[in-house]
Design brief:
This protein is an alpha/beta fold and 397 residues long. It is 43% helix and 13% strand. The chain has 14 helices and twelve strands. It has helices at residues 4-12, 15-30, 49-61, 64-67, 77-91, 105-118, 133-139, 159-165, 188-205, 266-280, 287-295, 304-320, 342-351, 376-392; strands at residues 36-37, 100-103, 123-127, 144-148, 170-176, 210-214, 237-242, 255-258, 332-336, 354-355, 357-358, 367-371. Strands 2-8-7-6-5-3-4 form a seven-stranded mixed β-sheet, sandwiched between helices. Helix 3 crosses helix 11 (287-295), helix 6 packs parallel to helix 7 (133-139) and helix 6 (105-118) packs across helix 10. The structure holds pyridoxal-5'-phosphate.
């Protein structure tokens, strides 16, 4: 009676949460200061002051019955309009308010678009390493996800591998830059080359191939690195943005997706997305938080804290002999494990109360992910343990 695939997904749980919960239990035994928890990608810095000021202003000026009312499923019209205006100012695009759908973060945008674009069959593709929830979104609609490898070590796109991985039933690609779990920002030239490849494949296959640009980390870049805006050179791109990481509001569940007016099948896709969002039972995003977030669009939390963490952790680990891909953005460090079995390394580290996530969970064995959205003290206290493991594994320092 019950789909056993869903049952087994539900039972297998979420490895990141499981390791984090182990950490919480250990903290009760050895004390929180002696547990170094790098598992959860939840912002550790406060939202910027403008978020609270806007909340207060709205509370003082908008009647509660209006501030907390239902909104249309696609979001408040004025919020959609402000999102369109912001994108147009930032990227020279021509979105109209009807091209914007306010969503519960990028998760809902992705899950809804995957349902819309794969309902009549076909498959999705993404690049390793990738955020594990993509697989659930795709497989829960009965479709398959192709995992396309990237360049070893750099995790930049491998165009030849992408061409080999594309098939006539590929309907969409999910692209995430800055990337979770690697922190890599994909280079504009390779994204433009991918766009040219997809245009050729669209003609060859006789149907559109859409890109879902999953960009909750767009604003978290540390060295002035450009995050290429994919819709500016590939029209069949649904841009998915979130306020979860940029202004540290992951629990408020606000984001939006933008459908370029010139996108193939635009009107059908927009209508079907609304149907799916209603069918999922989302109703609407919190109307107060839609307003707060959009009035603060463009603001970020104080990301200099993440930059300092990135620099300290990357510098210390590479000095100890670990090999890490240099992360230009997000708040993750992807570290090669000193033994090929990343899960074994995680288990060994867990014995020292050092908690990291195996890369296998992101389609990339042999690595672990460290979420460095933690206090700088956690990093300092963890370093002797990293050093102990480096010595035990015979890494050269
Ligand atoms: N995509 C990636 C790559 C993520 O890392 C996350 C959250 O960690 C999400 C999507 C979902 O974020 P949101 O809170 O915007 O739904």
């Amino acid at each position: 009676m019950i789909d056993q695939k869903l049952v087994s997904w539900g039972r297998s749980g979420n490895i990141i949460r499981e390791i984090a919960e182990y950490g919480a239990e250990q903290a009760k035994i050895v004390g929180p200061k002696n547990v170094y928890n790098f598992t959860i990608g939840s912002p550790s810095i406060d939202p910027p002051a403008i978020i609270f000021e806007t909340m207060e202003r709205l509370r003082a000026t908008v009647p509660p019955s209006e501030l907390h009312a239902y909104s249309p499923a696609a979001g408040l019209p004025e919020v959609r309009e402000k999102a369109a205006d912001f994108l147009n100012r930032s990227f020279g695009s021509a979105y109209r308010k009807q091209d914007i759908i306010i969503t519960c973060g990028t998760s809902t945008a992705l899950a809804a678009m995957i349902k819309v674009l794969l309902s009549c069959g076909g498959r999705a593709m993404t690049f390793t390493p990738y955020f594990m929830d993509y697989k659930y979104y795709v497989e829960s609609v009965g479709a398959a996800l192709t995992e396309c490898p990237t360049m070893p070590e750099s995790f930049q796109l491998d165009l030849e591998a992408a061409e080999r991985a594309l098939t006539p039933d590929t309907m969409l690609l999910i692209i995430n830059s800055p990337n979770n779990p690697s922190g890599v920002v994909l280079r504009r030239e390779s994204l433009e080359a991918l766009a040219r490849l997809l245009e050729r494949k669209q003609r060859e296959y006789g149907h559109p191939i859409y890109i879902l640009a999953d960009e909750p980390y767009r604003d978290l870049v540390y060295d002035g690195q450009e995050v290429a805006y994919i819709p500016s050179f590939y029209k069949n791109t649904v841009y998915c943005y979130s306020f979860s990481k940029s202004v540290s509001l992951p629990g408020e569940r606000v984001g939006f997706m933008a459908l370029p007016p010139e996108m193939d099948d635009h009107d059908d896709i927009a209508a079907a997305a609304m149907a799916v969002i209603r069918a999922f039972g989302y109703i609407c995003v919190s109307t107060m938080w839609q307003r707060v977030a959009i009035d603060c669009i463009g603001a970020t939390s104080d990301i200099s804290v993440y930059k300092r963490n990135r620099d300290r952790l990357y510098g210390a680990l590479t000095e100890m002999g670990y090999s890490c891909v240099y992360p230009d953005g997000a708040f993750y460090l992807f570290m090669k494990t000193p033994e090929p079995d990343a899960e074994a390394f995680c288990r060994r580290a867990m014995k020292e109360n050092l908690l990291v996530v195996p890369g296998d969970s992101f389609g990339t064995p042999g690595y672990v992910r460290l979420a460095y959205c933690v206090s700088p003290e956690v990093i300092e206290r963890s370093l002797p343990t990293f050093r102990k493991l480096a010595e035990e594994y015979g890494l050269k320092s």
